[in-house]
Design brief:
Distance between the termini: 34 Å
Strand order of the largest sheet: 1-4
Number of domains: 2
Helix content: 40-55%
Shape: globular
Number of helices: 3
Length: about 100
């Protein structure tokens, strides 16, 4: 199951909205090969240019992603990742 099924639309709540100029496009992919499963998500503006607000959010999430990658180690728990970025992410987005 991928995020598009959960968040975008499905049989009970289809979504056939046209992508408009300035909309963000989210691609959530989950390839699997020889028992290895991966999950990759990317977001980009439909017109190739982020608004200032989109840029702020994109860069905050990118920074959080890089912080988690830097801190990762064997037997790294998801909870540790959340502790590492939830509060800083709210600061980077100006929520505190």
């Amino acid at each position: 199951m991928n995020g598009a099924i959960l968040h975008y639309g499905h049989a009970n709540a289809p979504n056939n909205k046209k992508i408009m100029n300035g909309d963000l496009c989210l691609l959530d992919m989950g390839p699997e090969c020889e028992c290895y499963a991966s999950d990759v998500t990317t977001t980009f503006p439909s017109n190739g240019k982020f608004t200032e607000k989109q840029k702020l959010i994109y860069n905050a999430v990118l920074r959080a992603n890089r912080e988690v990658i830097k801190a990762a180690k064997p037997v790294y728990l998801c909870l540790e990742s959340m502790r590492l970025v939830v509060f800083p992410l709210s600061l980077w987005l100006g929520c505190h």
